[in-house]
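hey can u check if this looks right to u? its 195 residues, i copy pasted from the old doc so theres a chance i mangled smth
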Amino acid sequence: MKRNKPKYKQIIDAAVVVIAENGYHQAQVSKIAKQAGVADGTIYLYFQNKEDILISVFREKMGLFVEKIEEVIAGKDAAAEKLLVMIENHFKRLSADQHLAIVTQLELRQTNKELRLKINEVLKEYFLLVDKILRHGQERGEFPADLDIRLARQMIFGTMDETVTTWVMNEQKYNLEALAPAVHNLLLNGCGLKS
């Protein structure tokens, strides 16, 4: 499978850098190829076009994101603790890769409806993870039984997303990871997860 080949990963990683530094619309395939150290034509062995590269970047990076978060929350019992660890890891992963933060927070905000639908499809995996944490909290009696899971998920993801976007827009001038406990506390109170 193409996704398991080293050149695929090289191209994905190169695309993150090129898109972050040039913007999606100015990120030519030739620039991505040069950054990846491959011939222009090699790109088309793995991707149909630039849009496919952007979606693939998001799919690959978000897949790893969710996988890593699932690993670290697996050993936690309390849903509130799982939520904190998820927020910490979300902030940690994006603050560790500023190019990826720029791509996810700025360049994936495309107005093209078809592209937005594809991005939202990739996000479903993350949303399911948040839902799982919230349902776990309900089952344990930590969170209210009548909690609107969909609305709570939107608040949680939206808050994390906007916090990272603001950090990116402020040129990463402060410690994003340090905000996790405060964001966690606000979410617990704001979503009615704390009595």
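The chain has a mean pLDDT of 90.
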